[in-house]
Amino acid sequence: MAKRSSLSIRIVEGKNLPAKDITGSSDPYCIVKVDNEPIIRTATVWKTLCPFWGEEYQVHLPPTFHMVAFYVMDEDALSRDDVIGKVCLTRDTLVTHPKGFSGWAHLTEVDPDEEVQGEIHLRLEVVPGTRACRLRCSVLEARDLAPKDRNGASDPFVRVRYNGRTQETSIVKKSCYPRWNETFEFELEEGATEALCVEAWDWDLVSRNDFLGKVVFNVQRLWVAQQEEGWFRLQPDQSKSQQKEGNLGSLQLEVRLRDEMVLPSGCYQALVQLLCREVKLGTQGPGQLIPLIEEMTSTECRQEVATNLLKLFLGQGLAKDFLDLLFQLELGRTSEANTLFRSNSLASKSMESFLKVAGMRYLHGVLGPIIDRIFEEKKYVELDPSKVEVKDVGCSGLHRPQTEAEVLEQSAQTLRAHLGELLSALCRSVRACPAVVRATFRQLFQRVRERFPSAEHENVPFIAVTSFLCLRFFSPAIMAPKLFHLRERHADARTSRTLLLLAKAVQNVGNMDTPASRAKEAWMEPLQPSVYQGVTQMKDFITKLVDIEEKEELDLQRALSLQAPPVKEGPLFIHRTKGKSPLLSSSFKKLYFSLTTEALSFAKTPSSKKSALIKLANIRAAEKVEEKSFGSSHVMQVIYTDDAGRPQTAYLQCKCVNELNQWLSALRKVSINNTGLLGSYHPGVFRGDKWSCCHQKDKTDLGCDKTRSRVTLQEWNDPLDHDLEAQLIYRHLLGMEAALREKHRELSAGTETASVLTGCGEASEDRLAQLLQVLQDLQEAHNCSPVSSLPLEPNYLLELQT
Question: Quick one: CATH architecture of 359-548?
Fold first, then answer.
């Protein structure tokens, strides 16, 4: 049993941002921090005060998280990026919005002195004396303090104040993980109401000391407890933290916190078996559970439910059967062929999720090279005469501006070339398409052909396939490659227009060049010969794609399972060690890494033979490295044991914060069930005779910071979490329990019409009754869960409530 917390984040757009550049504009991007840990960096939107990002993320994190903060920055090429402002959302704020926080939030000013983080380890005691009791405060250590100096660290000391007296610890130089082990005593009067204040500061020789945070304790509560010890989260100074909104603009956000208590696998077995049996039975009359779920699911949460169901059945090997059931339901209520799969039904949403989970690697293989070329060329392309800007394109050979006709013709040639290249790549990719995707499209093709068998509908089965493959998968990826992980940054205006026009052409091909698609934008006519040719290519491709026999499907799946497909791959810089200590100068070497469910391997190039670096079962932790260790904030460490059982550490450098967190997430997910995972680690390196982070001289020291194995980003290729998906489906069904009970009463009342038997001899109301019983059993299991009554953090009662 475990508590799982996650944040769904959508960074929509900003408005009325202040100009930070001399051009009167800014180049804004966002950094998202969870408890002061940078997790996400959006793309930069150039030269605008009203940027649109539209980026979505899912972050899994510990239930003890406190706050998510959004920093809007202005990117500068020659100097440090400027901070524009920030929006902070605490856990308490998000809890009050069960459906999520959604709307505009004003940016507030960022005061460096109030950017506190980290925790401090204290022992507090009430010691009896001959005349009076004494309050003893032992300052032991701190971790993850804010780096206030240019060297990436701080020079921390602690100031303890009580009843007008102040005492201070020694200063620990160049460390965000100091250890003091110093004790102070104060005379304690019975009934005293004075609070004990413990403050952390960064010492500076020339300028004023920087505030690092504080903890305030209620002494009366301590008197009752007599003794307490623990880690306490440092808080900002409330008297100074009145942030000013000013004229910093606003940020539109959608943020939802979800806390789920996931029960042991056995608790969900009845629910999973019931749903799987429904899928195996297929469509056999009204009252089935899947149609009921679709009917009672609101439009706003249909995509989420579709994704959860799809992943559940994917884990049970029933994804194709589940989608086939939805295809049949959709075809059963569709009378017009031209409206097929055009709505936001459960079938459409489930198929979208299926393609992203099962087909994203295939999409990257087909589209990636073409998208890269479009970004690199940055050609001016326009087909709409009303939007042509002749001044943007010059004909240098003739030393004159091109005419509008010449611009349009050159644009058409460019787009025809891109479309032809894409269709050719698609036609060559039949064998590369995952077997389960091919088999699903085969089912779809056959079902539609059975439903619309006449000659006038000969194109309908092809359009059914392209409605998903082209209109809901390839075209959206072409228009927004950043959102499909094809590029790290959004396209500039010129490239974005090229991508949009190419996506329109692909849509026309996917629509089989129908008259309706032609009439929408007459200025697309120059591409018509290529579109017409593309329709022939597309039909030939689909014919080959769906021509897969069951034996071939099994053979392909077996072959793929033996290959251990990579969970993540790409170039990284590995830090080589010499002797016992890491080298500082030119010690990073660029290699191509591949992470599978078996090992982390590397090679000189993507096509070179790979050498295993770390066996997956030997990974003990994957964590970030302090910036001061290598002069970069994008270095991670993989702590593992070699074949002899000796502890080793590999240092890998990434190019940006997103890549860093993506690799950390992937490593943490694939090793989450390893034995011997570490609970603590050193964020620094052991150089010379001590750790650079906490200055301890014992190389085998357990670590001065806690590991963050539960902080991960959700990706399309994540390992399936069967229990979590079952819990999310249970939670959704619980929300519609009243409607399900009403439906059950209706079915039970009409026994003559509701007694149609399934293949197993069960009436539909009986299956619904089983579902209601399963929901009741799960609800009782949750109510009996001991975890739900535990506090989020120890020692929270000692903190002064202000």
Answer: Orthogonal Bundle (1.10)
